[in-house]
Amino acid sequence: MKRTTLLTTTLLITAIVLPLSTQAKGWQVLPITKAGYKTNTAIAIVGGAMQAKDDNQDVFSPMGLEVSINCPLLKAPNHTIRQRISYLQSDKNGFKTQAFELNPHHMYKVAPKVTAGFGPSVGYTKVKNSSGHDGIFTFGIGASGRYDLPNNMFLGAEARYVKAQKFEIAGKKTGFDNARALVKFGYQF
User: Fold this and answer.
1) Residue 7 pLDDT class (50, 70, 90 cuts)
2) Span of 24-28, 76-80, 92-96 with lowest mean pLDDT
3) Which candidate, 45, 144, 53, places its Cα nearest to that of 103?
4) CA 84 to CA 104: how far, in whole Å?
5) Which of 25, 114, 141, 181 sits at a 20 to 30 Å CA gap from 87?
6) What is the pLDDT of residues 102-112, one digit of tens each?
């Protein structure tokens, strides 16, 4: 319960403060409409470990793809907001998940080839086993880092906590809150 309250409070503060902060000097609204906007599109293969916080405490091995661009809605004066769209799937003993998520992260340069950041996530996850299936909405918060390699390639890592709706399969209601540690290998166009 304390994690849920902390997560909800953090997301609400972000939702309130971020629009107000756009009035600060240097922020741009809809930079996509301005000359010089570049998407800096990147694509990455993602994999890692995910521990469910339900009764079983199962550990899953999600794998998937992530596409990211510079945010077309807001441009910060001193850092970059990266809009990330990810697809992750996992299969543990016949319990399958497919997660589609939007994860905007505020990324700060901490060294010439290293950026680190944080941000919220919202998504939709399909869960399925031999007894049935359901779809659930999710939200969370995470922190990430990236190391740029030669030839536009990069390595990344992310830790995220995700809160999910309860779902029902075969008359049994359960949850799928989870904590994740992910690694990424990608290419920036």
Assistant:
1) low
2) 24-28
3) 144
4) 6
5) 114
6) 999 999 999 99
